[in-house]
Amino acid sequence: MSNEKEPLFSPKNLKLLSDPLGTSNPITVQVLGVCSALAVTVKLKPSIVLAISVLVVMAVSNVVISLMRKMVPPRIRIIVQLVVIAAMVILVDQVLKAYAYDVSKQLSVFVGLIITNCIIMGRLEAFALANKPWASFLDGIGNAAGYGVILIIVAFFRELLGSGTLLDMQVIPQSFYDAGYVNNGMMILPPMALVVVGVIIWIQRTRRKELVED
Amino acid sequence: MRNFSNTYIFVFSLIMVTIVAVLLSFVAMQLKPLQEMNVQIEKKQDVLKSVGKAGEAKEVDDKNAYINEEFAQYITESYVVDFNGDLLEEDAFEVMLALAGEIKKPQEERSYPVFVYSENGGPKRYVLPVRGKGLWGPIWGYVALEEDLNTIYGAVFDHKSETPGLGSEINTGWFQEPFSGKTIFDENGKFISIEVVKGGADPSSDHQVDGISGGTITSKALEEMMIDCLAGYVAHFEDLTTN
Questions:
Q1: What ipTM was assigned to the predicted interfaces of this complex?
Q2: Per the CB < 8 Å rule, is B161 touching A101?
Q3: What is the pTM of this model?
Q4: What percent helix, strand, coil does chain A show, rounded to 5?
Q5: Does residue B27 lie within any of the structural domains?
Q6: In terms of residue numbers, what domain contains B114?
Q7: What's the total number of domains in chain B?
Q8: Where are the domains of chain A?
């Protein structure tokens, strides 16, 4: 343990948290986990709960894998990662069903689908297997937050423009509808999530030229 | 990187799987009573909601006690009938919990639970549980009929895994409210149920409600569920109205 004296929130560790929010964002830069961004972002509330669930699963599985990293035989590491993630997801699902039944009903299949979220396995494989638990924990939180932020931004625009509501509360006043405004039904359909993600990627890359590939 | 022997890999996997299995089954068993209670409370709440009760479930501190109390107070009677309208010696609540198995049988062999609501001896309302298959999984609901056994007082629907924002909208107010006041028999007394219409219902029709844009399969499934499940009560309704 050479760097035991390294402070918990050293600049290096903080970078683990902040990078995934910007320059190495899992969705907009690494383009991982887009599948769930399509499906749940019709409404804001399920997106927020899914973001939190992914955060929990990711932080804990990163720590668990990091603790086991010296014991895991490389030949079966992917299977080990899957078992850890699947176990965590089932735990989250069971706890939601027992203590937050309404929310768990709203999310329905998507909690189970966290297992297939490529960001989680990607981080276990790329980071947790080679780093200490605390750093892995921060990396998990950072990446899950980077994922969650995009999810919430996409859901914000889709719910606002597609249903005229936010968190199921009407925000577009009735007078707009009376004046001929119509909700954009396209926003409810999955392809529009891709378009919104595309617009976010576009905006991000026009502001950060170093992300643009040739 | 250390080289791991095959034996190590086998032992490692065995231990890992055992730990995970024990952990998950322990948690599942610990949480099961809570989860089952949630399901029962939810069913009771939905029955109450279809007759316009249990409105304060979100505000009260102890939701479970509140729902149990309202259910005991307003649901004065419950029984089970068969396809021919004859009474069966079964518990309506148990049959409702097992409705998933019931709807797999042919209509003639099913048990049909009925919950009767009345407040201070006022007019009765009949709550009929319905269940069917949606796009991704089961959908179900509770239809409350007025004392005339024709006009819908209220309807509550829910689903296991319909697409959020599309099919899942069947459990929202804007979809359910139009069912109130519709009738399930036509002028000649023929059972026709309710039609869920894509692209907007005819406002003058007594048998149509709006479907969900982007949720056509769920909307149609709901329509079929209503026909499939309510048809089994027709004989019982005839007994009730002639007596």
A1: 0.72
A2: no
A3: 0.73
A4: 70, 0, 25
A5: no
A6: 46-242
A7: 1
A8: 26-209
